[in-house]
Specification:
By secondary structure, the chain is mostly helical. The protein folds into two domains: 168 residues, Ribonuclease III domain (Ribonuclease iii, N-terminal Endonuclease Domain, Chain A), CATH 1.10.1520; 68 residues, Double Stranded RNA Binding Domain (2-Layer Sandwich). Helices cover 51% and strands 6% of the residues. Strand 2 and strand 3 form a beta hairpin. The longest helix has 34 residues. The chain is elongated. About 8% of the residues have low confidence. InterPro entries: dsRBD_dom, RNase_III_dom, RNase_III_sf. GO terms for molecular function: ribonuclease III activity; RNA binding. One of its GO terms (biological process) is rRNA processing.
């Protein structure tokens, strides 16, 4: 009787395991179909221009980098491995490689296009490190052929663009752990430079800009100077040029902030103008004086060379009257 029960339980266990394995395959197929609509960058490399794959010297790291989690069929829902039995697959190297790749590609874009804004740069990077592009690179290095996979899933997994991209990221992470960032950069920067040029052209066109006529050499990176750069007089006066002085205070923006508060509170506002007084205002240099009333109460006064400047000064006092301190 005990033998029969154990036999039934064993069969059910293998049946459930088969179902879970098939679910993984279905999820993989779904993600692959989503990738079909994504763009793969395929720049042209001249003979001998495509960088060789660097060798991971540590045999232990190299073996783990090329081991998919299906090979050992460990559960993916465990919070943390036991200290004496860490997971032997390549997922941790893939996770690390994804971050290292992003770091190197971001630095490459900053070097090649120093004036590129963050939004377009993010789009360019997404094209460069997208799974379809990484999958194509991985196939060029024949990394999927070296993957250790579960025999029952090997054909499907090896043909998956996601798995192909993952093993490339895993290899990057393994190389980083084996030899450090300089070795990774010396490989990835020449590899991804043509990809960055192609992605730059695509995103530039998407922004409605004409394509560049011919590739131009990278301009020297401009030196960014702070707006408070000291004059020669200040430097000679003994002011430390390496210490940024406090930026001058400005009152610009009080008017818009004041309007936001009174509109939010649905309060009535009235601006009352008067002459400059004290002989300050002339035909050539007018001086505007204005008082701001909120619900019939004067909260501030201001004067300036334009109506807007005067209202801004009055709004500054008005904010204090509203209990807003800036």
């Amino acid at each position: 009787m005990t033998w029969a029960i154990n036999h039934i339980l064993s069969r059910r266990f293998h049946w459930y395991k088969s179902i879970l394995r098939n679910l993984d395959i279905f999820d993989l197929l779904r993600r692959n179909s989503e990738l079909e609509n994504q763009m793969a960058l395929k720049p042209e490399f001249k003979p001998g221009e495509f960088p060789a794959l660097p060798e991971i010297k540590s045999g232990e790291i190299r073996l783990q980098v090329l081991t998919h989690r299906s090979f050992y069929a460990r559960s993916a829902h465990v919070f943390e491995d036991h200290v004496d039995d860490p997971s032997p697959d390549n997922e941790k190297y893939e996770h690390l490689g994804d971050t290292v790749l992003g770091l190197v590609v971001t630095g490459l874009l900053l070097d090649m296009y120093p004036c590129l804004r963050v939004g377009p740069s993010t789009k360019i990077r997404a094209l460069m490190v997208g799974n379809t592009t990484l999958s194509d690179i991985s196939l060029k290095y024949k990394l999927p052929d070296r993957l250790r996979l579960h025999p029952a899933q090997a054909i499907t997994l090896r043909a998956s663009a996601n798995i192909q991209a993952d093993v490339l990221e895993s290899y990057i992470g393994g190389l980083y752990m084996d030899q450090g960032l300089p070795a990774v950069k010396s490989w990835l920067i020449p590899l991804f430079r043509p990809y960055s040029s192609l992605a730059y052209s695509i995103v530039r066109t998407q922004h409605g800009l004409p394509p560049l006529p011919t590739p131009s050499p990278t301009p020297p990176r401009p030196s960014i100077k702070p707006p408070w750069t000291l004059s020669p007089t200040s430097a000679s006066a003994g002011v430390d040029p390496n210490v940024a002085p406090t930026p001058p205070l400005t009152t610009i923006g009080h008017l818009s902030l004041f309007n936001q508060h009174v509109q939010k509170a649905n309060r009535a506002v009235e601006w009352v103008y008067s002459d400059g007084g004290n002989g300050e205002s002339t035909k050539t240099t007018p001086v505007w004086v204005v008082s701001v009333f909120v619900d019939g109460k004067c909260l501030g006064k201001g004067k300036g060379g334009t109506k807007k400047a005067a209202r801004n000064e009055a709004a500054k006092e008005g904010l204090v009257g509203l209990g807003v301190h800036v």
